[in-house]
Amino acid sequence: MKIPVADEMREKLQAAFAPTRLEIVNESHRHAGHAGDDGSGESHFRIAIAAPAFGPMSRIERHRAVHAALGPGITGRVHALALEISG
Amino acid sequence: MATAEEQIRDTIEKNDVVLFMKGTKMMPQCGFSSRVAGVLNYMGVEYQDVNVLADAEIRQGIKDFSDWPTIPQLYVKGEFVGGCDIVTEMTLSGELDQLFDAKGVGYDKDAAEKIRAANA
Q1: Which residues pair with A42 in a beta bridge?
Q2: Does the ipTM exceed 0.95?
């Protein structure tokens, strides 16, 4: 069975950062028929994450850390990934 | 024929502010690109737009160059600043103003304040 992308994201982010807050919203339905909508219903995501590990990092480092934790399998597959990261 | 990396390096060296985006600054073709272009347009920043949809090698090349998987990407004085989320956060916090001040990039301070007032 195919695992929803959001579940895969949650698992990876939990494992990497043990976040104190983690919200993953699939916003794909809001972009249905727009550029980047591949019909999968898993094209646009918004992630809000807070973890102590992000505290000392710059904005770019925080984003890079999340990109790395998700891995190219996810960042390469989804069309849009909005990130709100706090320490 | 210059490689994509050479073209990218050349563009960010020759222009103080460069936005790699989907579409053009006048006709963005993605909401995220549109938001960053909109901020720069509104703040009256002079910048070079690079439409990655017009060149598949640049589209992949810029992701490799910055080790960043998404478009848009903003560069100021050759330095990668971030994508849509980071530029939005920096606009609202005033950090973008500080960056432009530090790098000697001209912009309309009143317009920046208006953006912040409208999103307060």
Answers
A1: none
A2: no
